[in-house]
Amino acid sequence: MYLPPHFEGDRAQAADLIRQHPFASLISIDASDLPFITHLPLHLEMTDDPAGPQTFTLLGHVARGNPHWRYLRDRPQAVVTFLGPHAYLSPKVYPDLARVPTWNYLAVHCTVQATLVEDAAAKDNLLKKLIGDHEPAYAEQWRGMDDAYTRKMLAGIVAFELQVTDLQCKLKLNQHRPEALLATQAVYESGNDAEQDLGRWIKHISRDSPNSLKG
What we know:
The chain is of the alpha+beta class. The chain has one domain: Pnp Oxidase, Chain A. The chain has seven helices and seven strands. It has helices spanning 11-20, 68-74, 120-134, 138-143, 147-155, 178-189, 193-208, and strands at 23-29, 35-41, 43-47, 55-63, 77-89, 102-117, 157-172. Strands 2-1-5-6-7-4-3 form a seven-stranded antiparallel beta sheet. Residues 210-215 have low confidence and may be disordered.
């Protein structure tokens, strides 16, 4: 994606964004050489490699009837995108009138290498990680279900691991306009849920780079 240096986030910010907004778009190339997109939640795992940088792996699954898993099998390289909060920004935040509106947003794009997970026990373990992200209390109900039912449910999905080989994190928060950043934060903090979330991110990056708030 287009990523000017002043909007570039780091890997820690990318991880925060993925975990706060785990509903992703998984993009592969289909048999017609066109993008095929599945929208789905993904679980992020991060590991520390003593010999290199921290690695990101995304875990997920699709229905067996969804052809996407075949595209991942045949063309393992794919793209995953995460979209965080986004909102309009009025030019009224600026101290002068020669300005235009914009749209602020947070996004992460990952290039990934896919590996299918076929083993039933491994799929069950992957599902438990997704359950842990969204409804930990459901894990007990899942474990207590009849074995025949759980085997049927597991057979109906194809799970996968997506190893992140490249990552871009974009935090477009008007931080390149320090003369308006405090006003932008104030506008968002009094807005709807998405705008309030953007306001918190502005406060967060301003704390990390306090000079960005000096107009």
